[in-house]
Amino acid sequence: MRRTRKMTPFERQVKTRLMELDMTQTELCNRLGIKKQYLNTIFAGYRKDSAYIDQIREVLGIGA
User: Fold this and answer.
1) CA-to-CA distance for 6 and 4, rounded, in angstroms?
2) What is the Cα–Cα distance from 9 to 1, expressed in whole angstroms?
3) Is the dihedral of CA 63, 6, 50, 19 positive or negative?
4) Any alpha helices (H) in the chain, and if so which ranges?
5) Mean pLDDT across the chain
6) What value, to the nearest 5°, has the Cα angle with vertex 41 and ends 15 and 34?
7) pLDDT beyond 90 at 50
8) Tell me, what DSSP letter sits at residue 7?
9) What single-letter DSSP state applies at residue 39?
């Protein structure tokens, strides 16, 4: 049986903003130069100190 995890507040915020901008996660990853798997580790909270968090906020126009 596969365990599902709850979305983090940051992940929810990013996914909402992606929908508003009609942008996919893949497009976001391409702009950041990262793989989707790495983005998922950020969403899961495993990369809280990632410099990409600030870049994600900047690309999507999300305040801190």
Assistant:
1) 7
2) 25
3) negative
4) 9-21, 25-32, 36-43, 52-60
5) 89
6) 80
7) no
8) P
9) H
